[in-house]
Amino acid sequence: MKTIYGTIVFIHVVSAVIAIGPLFLLVPIIKRLRSAESTSEEAFLNIIRVTIRIVMHAGHMLVVSGALLILIGPWPWHTPWVIATLVVLLLSGVFLSTGFTRVLRNYNEPGFNKESILSRLNRTSWIYIALMLIMLWLMVQKPILW
Predict the structure, then answer these.
(1) 1: pLDDT confidence band, cut at 50, 70 and 90?
(2) In angstroms, what CA-CA distances link 30 with 49, 53, 81, 114?
(3) Least enclosed by CB within 10 Å: which of 2, 90, 117, 143?
(4) CA-CA distance, 126 to 108, in Å (whole number)?
(5) pLDDT digits (tens, 9 = 90+) for 79-99
(6) Taking the C-alpha atoms of 53, 141, 70 and 3 in order, what is their torsion angle to the nearest 10 degrees?
(7) For this UniProt entry, which segments traverse the membrane (predicted)?
(8) Average pLDDT of the residues in 15-29
(9) Please, what is the angle between helix 114-141 and helix 23-34, to 10°?
(10) Number of CB atoms found within 10 A of residue 135's CB
(11) How many Cα atoms occupy the beta-carbon half-sphere of 87 within 13 Å?
């Protein structure tokens, strides 16, 4: 059982790194997109879409491995840090599915405001990074919240 638990912890940690790490790439890409010519804009947008897709799939693996760790691990579902992690997880899931997709969809709409959309995309990236770091803190520290 220890080997299985250790393997799941490893998968959980790797998926957390993959779910957070690529988001930091978005900041310089968005900065370059602000001054990009129209011919290279689509390439930058594709990089952003692929990055979000990688983060999303790593997030799925993170959720599955986390659920398995709770099921076979020493912490019950009603532990405060587990409940707080689930709340932040739900917020980030809703935020990721609506925040990035809507912004990217508006980019190619006629009459779009490029600067406004890129500012929203940058803000969305930092908010999602913050949510992921809060979850990471909860999982590592396992604080007694109440």
Answers:
(1) low
(2) 12, 16, 34, 11
(3) 2
(4) 22
(5) 899 999 888 888 887 777 677
(6) 90
(7) 6-30, 50-75, 81-104, 125-144
(8) 90
(9) 170
(10) 23
(11) 9
Transcribe 12-70 into DSSP letters.
HHHHHHHHHTTHHHHHHHHHHHHT--HHHHHHHHHHHHHHHHHHHHHHHHHHHHHHHHH
Two tokens, residue 93:
């899931």
Q: What is the largest CA-CA distance in the chain?
A: 58
Question: Residue 120 class from Cβ within 10 Å (0-12 exposed, 13-18 middle, 19+ buried)?
Answer: middle
CA angle 38–41–43, rounded 5-degree value: 135
pLDDT tens across 60-79, in order? 899 899 999 999 988 888 88
